[in-house]
Amino acid sequence: MDSKIKRIGVLTSGGDAPGMNAAIRAVVRSSIYYNCEVVGVIRGYAGLINKQFMGMQSHSVSKIISQGGTILKSSRCPEFRQPDVRKQCVDNMEEAGIDALIVIGGDGSFRGANELFKEFDFPVVGIPGTIDNDIYGTDYTIGFDTAINTAVSAIDKLRDTADSHNLVFFVEVMGRDAGFIALNTAIATGAEAVLLPEVPTNLKSLCDYLLNERRKNKTSGIVIVAEGDKEGGAVEIAAKVKRRLPDYETRVTTLGHIQRGGSPSCNDRVLASVLGHGAVRALLDGRSGVMIGMVHNEIAYTSFDMACSRHSEINKSWYDVSHILSL
Known about the structure:
It is a single chain. By secondary structure, the protein is α/β, with parallel strands linked by helices. The chain has 2 domains: 7-143 and 264-309, Rossmann fold; 145-260, Rossmann fold (3-Layer(aba) Sandwich). 43% of the residues lie in helices and 18% in strands. The chain is built from 11 helices and 11 strands. The protein has helices spanning 20-33, 44-50, 83-95, 107-120, 144-165, 180-189, 203-215, 234-244, 266-284, 304-309, 316-325; strands at residues 7-12, 37-41, 53-56, 100-105, 124-128, 168-173, 193-195, 221-226, 250-254, 290-295, 298-303. Strands 3-2-1-4-5-10-11 form a 7-stranded mixed sheet, with helices on both faces. A 4-stranded parallel sheet has the order 7-8-6-9, sandwiched between helices. Helix 1 (20-33) runs parallel beside helix 9 (266-284), helix 2 packs across helix 3 and helix 5 (144-165) crosses helix 6 (180-189). It starts with 6 loop residues before the first strand and ends with a helix.
């Protein structure tokens, strides 16, 4: 282990994700186990700029493993793109005696971490925390499992109303650039159709399909729409379908930020705990400029360059499965 690292900083950046607190807890307690001090950085990169540092002990993270959100808070920090601001952040960390940094967030957060590593050779390791599950180098990201379970629960409830009133619900889920949430929830809820950023939307085919479903006396319809679909969000898609099928009763539900909240699932707690511990070990073993992920249930390391330049891809065969099982 690298004995030069005696104090580790940890921050959460970008959109919050269920399980971030479990990761913070793992970082704090693993650091203490390996005789390192821990400094929490409040409000992400903005906290580095403003010296919002907080010493953390084992009791600082008691009972947070079941909490959603992040006790360290998060924020967007566009000023961090400026080289002189990043230099000030490194100076602030050195002044506080922080020898290395763990960043919990998505690809935008990792781009910032990569700049610290490349420009100043500052030891940084990333932990993937985003509900979108689109980070390259890990099978799953922290928060994804909770988000899809939240979406499935909501859509199951919508199905009751759809059945009762012969409605077609267009349900918008998060996923501006990736359809992982949409595809998984569509299969799990038996949705009639799913629209993804990765697959071009054919409105004529969608309308023909819905007409065919009605002919088979189906009493309801659920269409899952990823927010990044090229034809628009659920509101726009529903309006276009209504113009083509004026006799259909349609409703729109946008799940929005509810998918980010709530107590993390067992899977997310375990993933966050293992990756949090692994991030500390990686730093102490001399690794830096990498994201730690889980591939086939084994710890894997991916350079920030690779993690930031590529995205995980959905399983296209699952898209076919979702269509076949909805017939």
